[in-house]
Amino acid sequence: MIHVEKALQLVDNHLTKTETYTTIPLAQALGCALAEDVISPIHMPPFRQSAMDGYALGSVAETNFTLIGEVKAGDNANPELHAGEAIRIFTGAPVPTGAKAVMMQEKTEKKENMLLLHEQAKPDANIRPMGEQIKKGEVALPKGTVITAAAVGYLATLGVIEVTVYQKPSIAIIATGNELIAPGQPLQHGQIYESNSIMLSTALAKTGFTHVDFFKIEDEYETTLSVLDQAITHYDVVVISGGISVGDYDFVGKALRNLEVEEVFYKVKQKPGKPLYFAKKQNTTIFALPGNPASSLSCFYVYVLPALHKISGYSQPQLQRSTVATNSAYTKKGERAEFLKALVTGDTVTLLDGQASSMLSSFALANALIYLPNDVKEIHIGDPVQVIYLP
């Protein structure tokens, strides 16, 4: 059994970024990492632009102006302003040639075709210069950047319609267990609803992993062997839920050994998620997660999702971490490292009730995990603790 830090290092050492990339429409790139720099094809803004509704002024040395017209957002006209002249202008509109400033309308008074300022304007006030945000030919977003909704909007403002991104891996999720049935069916004595596959697929979809297929296998060796063989052959990443322990009906470990995968580690000194398994076979990455739902999801966030990020070309594959003061006291019952479901609010974090590996009720309220290394035995209110923020 190895420590958490060793397990994380081994996962990282056995993964390489994909060399496969593809050019896709910008609207489909959410959650993908850029495989090359995006260069801005235009200045942004592409012209001097008014930052507010008001009046463009032909000088800043006077407070009385003659109004000669107006310019709206989207207008192609480019009237030239001279000293003593002003023009009505709206937010986002192109600033006329010769304009020295834009005065907000709240600080003006209009009388027929005359404009009176309540105060003298300052040079270039309320004018966004051409290329203020970015200039043509500059790097808009560097290689490795993960495309977010904001990034989509930013690139769209530059006229970008497609981007070159690293191709995301294909993923097989395999749920094992005779006791598992699909939600919606009547429960028989001894059965439980299978939740891990939909839980993990939802977590994957949230970060843009959509090439995901599901398999459900009962606790029977030949079936387990066949499904695992097919999954390892046809998918980049295989995530197995349950069946990795050493019970009489846990056949995953035996099947993987017979398939001659390269076991990197099995069992980590952590709670929850002790029976975590990690292996490789040629270019396929294999994780076997514990069957208990909260344990499975904890391992997914700590190990699987960062691994998928690295394979997908993310420049920063790990989930965000920080040190936060805790509102809770806690004492470990053992010597393993622990991942505790928690809620970060402002600059403090609160430990949630229901930390058992089978309980998802507290996970449903959590936005972070508190990480207690194996050498931390207890925490007190006010202590700084390391938190892992959930996506």
Automatic annotation (TrEMBL):
Entry protein name: Molybdopterin molybdenumtransferase
Broadest EC class assigned to this enzyme: transferase
Cofactor needs: Mg(2+)
Keywords, sorted A to Z: Magnesium, Metal-binding, Molybdenum, Molybdenum cofactor biosynthesis, Transferase
EC number(s) from the headed UniProt entry: 2.10.1.1
GO cellular component: cytosol
Lineage, top ranks: Bacteria, Pseudomonadati, Bacteroidota, Flavobacteriia, Flavobacteriales
Family: Belongs to the MoeA family.
One GO MF term: metal ion binding
Domain MoaB/Mog: start-end pairs: 172-310
GO biological process terms held by the UniProt record: Mo-molybdopterin cofactor biosynthetic process
Pfam families assigned: MoCF_biosynth, MoeA_C, MoeA_N
